[in-house]
Every structure is written in structure tokens, then in C-alpha cells.
Specification:
Distance between the termini: 21 Å
Shape: globular
Largest sheet: none
Oligomer: single chain
Order of helices and strands: HHHHHHHHHHHHHHH
Helix content: over 70%
Number of domains: 1
Radius of gyration: 20 Å
Mean pLDDT: 84
Number of strands: 0
Structural class: mainly alpha
Low-confidence stretches: 302-308, 315-337
Strand content: under 5%
Amino acid sequence: MPVEPSSSHVRTGMLYAFGAYGLWGLVPLYFKSLECQPKEIVAHRVLWSALLLGILLTVFRRWPDFVKAIRSKRTFFMLLASAYLVAANWYIYIFATTSGQITQASLGYFILPLVNVVAGILLFGERLRRAQAIALLIAAAGVLYLAISQGGLPWIGLSLAVSFAFYGIVRKVVPVDGVVGLSVETVLLAPTAIAFLVIWERVGGMTFAHGNRDQDILIALSGIVTTTPLIFFAQAVRRVSLVTIGVVQYMAPTLQLILGVTWFGEEFVGYHQISFGLIWFGLSIYVVDGVRAAVRKHLDTPSLEPVPEPLDGGVPLTESHLLDIRTPDPRAREASP
């Protein structure tokens, strides 16, 4: 019988959740301050994150879990696949941010839960409830209206959502938690990142270590920017229900949208407002239906099972995974510290 969490326990969890999604929502401010190409930012993000995560593995004595993950052939190759999916996701997001398309990046994370639902139907044979089907149709109408109005599909938003949906699918079947999983992924990406940085240095395309100390410091902070909200998220999911996390997640793209429009002056005219309005309406139906379904299944206690970590604001969980994630999994239990 699960123990009911105390109010202070839940309160701390909510603070961690707001901290995580608040940081993800404000991360465009950081990427906008970097004066180098997105590909270099991604490479440095990999290396500095790997370094910081190595320190965390040492402090929390998680190296045995790391070694166990890379020794398993299945886990190794699954994390190799997820590593390059997350690298693609990082690149698309940073490109969107630095090229003045934060609004479209926020769109990707608004539609991500609905893309996850579609993936669940196609890959896991999940069945839609009526409210979910209505939510999907309304959100799809919003995306279609935006595509017609601007003369093309919002490729950045769709690419972010699809790449992260596939990342979540891969990570769903890998029995490692967020910190260990991201540690393995960054280590696997490190050789590619180093190779590209060496090439760019030789052809004169590097920004780092070329006279601008302020930029060097900012680039080195990419490890902290990547891992801090992840740690907050890991603490949050151990204290509050995943249904709560599923609602709080929309704080990140909302903040990103507000930043893009008000701080950076991105366009948000009538057809944007109609499109986003339809998407938000569909999401509201989806969230209310998901919360009601979760309440019916009495899933109001925090989960100790590992879940895939979000990146820059997305949650790689379909609504059905929110409901099923508390089911004991022997593989997850073996992988837990």
C-alpha cells in the first residue's frame, strides 16, 4: 500500500516542477546570448553536459548504473539511437531560437503531447477515447490553418515534436533513469562532438577560445543549463503525481511563446492567434480528459519508477503512459539505485 505523501513533500515537489519548467521556459534567453552557430552550441552542450554529469555520477555514486547500462548490448544501442535523436532535437531547438523562431519552437512543445498520442496509436496500438479524438482533430485544424495562412507547414515545430516523440518512445523501453540515461547519451555523442569541433577549429569556424572570454564562459555554462532543470524534474516526479507534471509542463512553451513575442518581438498576428487558439483549445480538452481518467484510476501518489527526461520543456509521455507508468516493471526495479 503506497504511503500518502505529506503536504510539505508535495509542496517541495511543486517547487521543483515549477523550477524545472520555468528554466526550460526561459532557456531561449541563454541561447540568444550565444554568438556562435547552432552546430557549435550543440557540440559544446554535449561535452560540457558530459563533464557535469560525470561529476554528478561521482557525487551520487551512480557509476555502477552507468557501467551496467553500457554493458547491456540492447540498452547500449537503444541509448545510442536516443542520443542522436536528442542531438537532432537540440539542434532544431537552438536553430529555431537563434534564428528568431521561438514562437514556432513553442508550437512544437504545445503539440508534442498530441503527437505522442498519434505515436501511441500507430506503434503501440493504443485506442483513443472520444475526448482525445476531438482534441486531436481541433489541434490538427490549428496546425492546418497555420500552414495555409503562412503558405507552408510549420516544419520547425513539427520536427521538434516528432523528433522528441521518437526520443520518448526509445527511452520508454530503456530501464534507466534521466541522469544515467543522459550521461550515457552525452558520452556516446562526445566523439562526434569532438571530431566536429576539431574540424571547425581547423577551418576557422569556431567561436570558443578565440578571444571573447564572456562568450567562452557562457558556452561552458551549457552543461549547467542542460542538467539543472533535469535534476529539478527528477526530484519533482518523485514527490508529485505525473498527472500534475503533465499539466505543469505547459508552463515551458507558454513562457517561450511570451518571450518570443514580447521580449524578442517575433510576429504573432491574427492567423497565429487563431491557430494557437485552436491548439490550446484542443490541449485543454486533452488535459481535462487525461486528469479525469487518472483520477478514475486513483493515480494521485508520486511514482518511483524512472521516466524519460524532458529536454528544453517537453515531456515524452503519452497520456496512457501517465496512467500506466506506476505499474511495477521488473526491469526498472533492477535498474533503480
